[in-house]
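Re: that backbone. Tokens:
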């Protein structure tokens, strides 16, 4: 009788096993968990910060820009914060330029004369035609673009800058006043905002 009992259960057990495996496979293929969803999280730029900058001969506005802290520094303050300087707004070779602090030192721009080459960096930036929609797009534009540490500038020029802190900032030149080393400019900067 023990054998007959096993023979009767064997086909039933196979059927139950088959149904269980089939249900699991179907459920595994169609169930979706929240962790499985693909999301497109982007990081926005911060609100605009508008700063006035001055070329190296301008006594009212600073030349050195710390993008991470969204500040412009006059010469004395810039000398004290050399390792955090990202770019300079200067007048060089008959035009206004955006220039890395180390490149300014190497180029003999007077405001950079006291810079310590062990502290200032060859910060790089990429000129873009249109402002990237968010920080993530800005990073992509930077990675794909031609990196420079010196560029003549005109109103409307847009750059993605990789800062001394390794972040990315969007810099837009809004206007330029003057035509010599005493000139000034207005820049708009955006840095990394909150992910959403």
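Recovered sequence:
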């Amino acid at each position: 009788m023990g054998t007959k009992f096993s023979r009767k259960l064997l086909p039933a057990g196979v059927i139950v096993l088959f149904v269980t495996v089939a249900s699991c496979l179907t459920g595994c293929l169609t169930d979706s968990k929240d962790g499985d969803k693909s999301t497109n999280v982007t990081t926005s730029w911060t609100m605009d910060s508008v700063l006035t900058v001055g070329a190296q001969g301008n006594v009212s506005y600073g030349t050195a820009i710390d993008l991470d802290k969204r500040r412009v520094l006059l010469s004395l303050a810039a000398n004290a914060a050399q390792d955090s300087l990202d770019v300079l707004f200067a007048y060089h070779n008959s035009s206004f330029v955006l220039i890395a602090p180390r490149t300014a030192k190497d180029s003999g721009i007077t405001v950079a004369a006291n810079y310590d080459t062990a502290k200032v960096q060859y910060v790089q930036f990429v000129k873009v035609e249109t402002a990237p929609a968010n920080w993530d797009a800005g990073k992509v534009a930077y990675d794909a673009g031609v990196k420079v540490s010196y560029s003549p500038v005109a109103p409307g020029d847009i750059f993605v800058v990789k800062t001394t802190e390794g972040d990315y900032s969007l810099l837009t030149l809004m206007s330029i006043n003057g035509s010599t080393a005493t000139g000034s400019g207005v820049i708009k900067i955006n840095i990394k905002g909150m992910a959403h």
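The helical segments are 2-30, 75-80, 101-107, 135-144. Residues 9-34 have pLDDT under 50 and may be disordered.
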